[in-house]
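Possible regression after last week's pipeline update?

I re-ran a chain I had predicted before the update to compare outputs. Posting the input and the new output here so someone can diff against the archived version. Not blocking, just want to make sure nothing changed silently.
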Amino acid sequence: MTDKRTPGGDSDKAYTLSDLLAVMARLRDPETGCPWDVKQSFETIAPYTIEEAYEVADAIQRGNMDALKEELGDLLLQVVYHAQLAAEMGSFSFDDVADVITRKMIRRHPHVFEGPTRRDAFLGSGLWEQIKAKEKAEGGEGTYPTGILNDVPVGMPGLTRAAKLQKRAADVGFDWSEVGLIIGKVEEEIAELKAAIAESQPHERIADEFGDVAFVLANVARHLGIDPEAALRGTNAKFIRRFGSIEAALAAQGRGPQDADLDEMDKLWNAAKLEEKSTNQDGSSGKNE
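New output (post-update):
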């Protein structure tokens, strides 16, 4: 008998969250489920979870709502997947996940759910941070080791984690007073990187100096209110776009990048750059420049 809660039942129906939960349970069935899904674990699924979050961010950056709808579904599937794995272990269920985040949102927004008169003063009150600190003290944020920086997830992208660590330290007064001082630190770190390269120091030392440069650049971004990962994604997109212009110009001549020297490609790059700037001045574009 075909189960109408899963695809293959009623193809015209609009599926709901309960249907998705049923699909995942069926995929994980040891006897009748999908062999690939049955083999998965928290550890093997985690990389997909991170990847799907990035694809959501990409759809948002592109302003593609159809893609965003699909990518949000893919990300939701990851939550359902982890919850199913936990349910099989007898640890918790999807309902428990929904319950804990709902309770957290209500608890952290007393100005909305308890005292609406406090709403206007909320942003500058430090109430959110106070509530989070109380939760940690009471063990409400899991079993992370004690310490201001210890619960910043290791799996975060490097630049995002750097900015998060810096923000945590800044919250207790360990911070630069102005962005100009950090720019000076950037120059200092670059000088140390250049020296390490010039002196042919071990690769590990050069990598360490490079890490220092990236870390302090993340701090510059934080002080300027810039998301360093988003800024880098924008630059990546710009690089792809401009290199694509090089490929297109060469293809029009029946050639590829491998058939051109660096000087020619550099000229084509600069031409693409000038064209983009001209387009932006006309107001027809402006993303990721």
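Follow-up from reviewer: compared with the archived run. The two ends are 56 Å apart (CA to CA). Marking as no regression found.
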